[in-house]
Amino acid sequence: RRKWRKVVGILRDLEESCETPLGRLRQMVDAIAVEMQAGLVSEGGSKLKMLLTFVDDLPNGSERGTYYALHLGGSYFRMIRVYLTGQRSSLEVQDVERHSIPTSLLNSTSEVLFDFLASSLQGFIEKEGDTSNLSQFVKRELAFTFSFPVKQTSISSGVLIKWTKGFAISEMAGEDIAECLQGALNRRGLDIHVAALVNDTVGALSFGHYHDPDTIAAVVFGTGSNACYLERTDAIIKCQNPRTTSGSMVVNMEWGNFWSSRLPRTRYDVELDAESLNSNDMGFEKMIGGMYLGDIVRRVILRMSQESDVFGPISSILLTPFVLRTNSVSAMHEDDTPELQEVARILKDLGVSEVPMKVRKLVMKICDVVTRRAARLAAAGVAGILKKVGRDGSGGGRRRSDKQMMRRTVVAVEGGLYSNYKMFREYMDEALREILGEDVAQHVVIKAMEDGSSIGSALLLASSHSVRT
Ligand code: ADP
Description:
By secondary structure, the chain is an alpha/beta fold. The chain has a domain at 52-210 and 451-462: ATPase, nucleotide binding domain (Nucleotidyltransferase, domain 5, 2-Layer Sandwich). 42% of the residues lie in helices and 18% in strands. It contains 15 helices and 13 strands. Strands 1-11-10-9-12-13 form a 6-stranded mixed β-sheet. A hairpin with a 3-residue loop joins strand 9 (215-221) and strand 10 (225-232). Helix 1 runs antiparallel to helix 8 (290-307), helix 2 (22-41) crosses helix 11 (357-388) and helix 3 crosses helix 4 (177-187). It binds adenosine-5'-diphosphate. Residues 73-76, 147, 222-223, 290-291, 326-327, 330, 415-417, 420-421 line the site of adenosine-5'-diphosphate (ADP).
């Protein structure tokens, strides 16, 4: 009994240190809006890098042609081919392939990584035969969608700032990512031109905006997390001479690196960070990214198992970082079998068998606490963007109740965590409503998308072509 009490105490501590009451969420919203502002004023002025993207015009539906995109995400890479006829409704995704990134690549070399991507693309193109509407003599135009922080120097070039999400390929920071890919394609004799380098969030925004011009921001909740939004160029003070015709530019926030002392941090977050490849970095991402949620849950279970006997003898599997994946967290959390068989099955895979019902429920509760915190912080992030652009109902001296003044605002959302984890979505929606209040929330649409970042990057490339020609 005393052992059970110990475990309940650990759970209570976890709940307390993960608490995200509305007041705290509002502080997060303010902190994010303030940091966004600081990051726009000066280079290095904030933990939020607020990177320029050189994207000023978003696709509008008039684009034409065949375009490719290659997307390097945190866990997957994707290749697509789209065919555009100039009419929004006839956007045709002709082919799409998605593969896991082999873990051996994560700490390989630049040459190995880009050669792998080039050879995958070669396979993709060889398969298309004559279905592509392209003659074999036409040079293919490719958008490279890249889910890591890049300092863009133009729409088609930029250097890697740092790796995140478990990638650790040395000697790449400072290299032009588009050139690396182009070099690998050239070495294979492939006639493909890397004509755009696009952050995945920017691709998602492009796709969202293509279908719905009220879309002003995009957020990705996948292996990691990041957001971008459309900002007025005169607010981007750190950029003296932004050459845009539209008066606005997409800004890549790199919000995974957001930090505030008000974030509800637990001992498990501290340990996870200390043992990570990038400690003291990406603090927000480590609380909301799909790569990390499973490992937070694992650390809680491990501690309970070390300090009590309710999980039986300590399993050596449980000691392995990242062995519990976030898809298993959602499977346990959403287990609706009467005996919680899914929880039991996953625990068994972790080397913990024969756990009684009350322990299964306990594990489910841990998943709930960790995911609820993540989803509520994610909602605060979205509300922070809305606040910065004056769409949270508080800005411009407008009264919250003045419905006439509220414009419809769409935020495009994508990523495996969001699309596959219903409880994450529900907690996030609920928190966003709490923060904004019903009056404002009814004007804010969260639009889920799939493959939006890759398709959107191809659309962006198409629209940059149509500007030039
Ligand atoms: P990437 O991050 O590589 O661009 P995705 O956006 O598809 O790819 O996100 C993949 C991530 O989403 C996985 O690493 C995992 O963390 C999370 N995820 C995938 N499936 C689930 C699921 N069923 N439940 C919870 N999280 C999931």
